[in-house]
Design brief:
Radius of gyration: 17 Å
CATH topology of the largest domain: Rossmann fold
Strand content: 5-15%
CATH superfamily of the largest domain: HAD superfamily/HAD-like
Number of strands: 8
CATH class of the largest domain: Alpha Beta
Strand order of the largest sheet: 5-4-1-6-7-8
Largest sheet: 6 strands, parallel
Distance between the termini: 8 Å
Helix content: 40-55%
Order of helices and strands: EEHHHEHEHEHHEHEHEH
Length: 225
């Protein structure tokens, strides 16, 4: 009914950036602190692909993950995923707002510093993290649930869910989009994670941001019909 795409919400870790090794270091440090155990990068990677990292923490789950989310505030080994800068330029040319939502539990200035370091800060309109969510009195119904933050952004920028697309790499990103009525594009440079998102029901997926942009154009055409 006359809607057009207005907003792109971008997940940060493992979506805009490939920072897998930063993720590993932060997780392993937190795991050791709370359980006395540590794992190799190879085991971490295998468990990540099969969504089995949580099996290592059981009852310590919230403590380990929240500690990790604070440790990963500073990126040391990150680089942009393929096509990101081009994607940001093209969506800016289209007049779309772009907002980052991060599961990191740290002040957004750390992410802004990372964006500046890689020269893409000019393309981003705002950044929200789980630090902001707790600061604003938000609720995390389960670990890495971004639903409250997404609703906050839609309301703040006066955007209907059908006018927004969320780009993320994790199953909860997809479920949050589904529940709120946002369009979703699943991203991963890793084939196994793409296949996992497809099995869950994700219709639009991309292995780089050129594919993501093609999907965004498809979505834009659908909502203008």
């Amino acid at each position: 009914m006359g809607y057009g795409l207005k907003l792109v919400v971008l997940d940060y870790d493992l979506t805009l950036f490939n920072n897998l090794y930063d993720f590993y270091i932060a997780f392993n440090e937190s795991l050791t602190r709370h359980t006395g155990k540590s794992i190799s990068f190879e085991e971490f990677y295998e468990r990540l692909l099969n969504d089995k990292l949580s099996e290592l923490v059981s009852s310590e789950s919230w403590s380990v993950w929240r500690d990790m989310r604070k440790k990963i505030c500073v990126s040391r080994y990150s680089y942009l995923n393929r096509g990101v800068e081009w994607f940001l330029y093209m969506t800016s040319y289209m007049g779309l707002k772009k907002i980052i939502v991060s599961g990191r539990e740290c002040h957004s200035r750390y992410i802004w510093l990372d964006l500046m370091k890689h020269g893409i800060d000019e393309y981003i309109d705002a950044v929200y993290t789980f630090y902001d969510m707790y600061l604003f009195g938000g609720v995390e119904e389960e670990l890495f649930d971004k639903k409250w933050l997404l609703k906050y952004i839609l309301e703040k920028y006066h955007v209907e869910p059908v006018e927004a697309v969320y780009i993320g790499d994790y199953k909860l990103d997809y479920y949050n989009s589904l529940e709120l009525g946002l369009w979703f594009i699943g991203f991963s440079a890793i084939d196994e994670r793409i296949e996992c998102l497809k099995r869950l029901g994700a219709r639009f997926t991309g292995r780089d941001f050129y594919e993501v942009f093609y999907n965004l154009l498809e979505i834009s055409r659908k909502i203008r019909r």
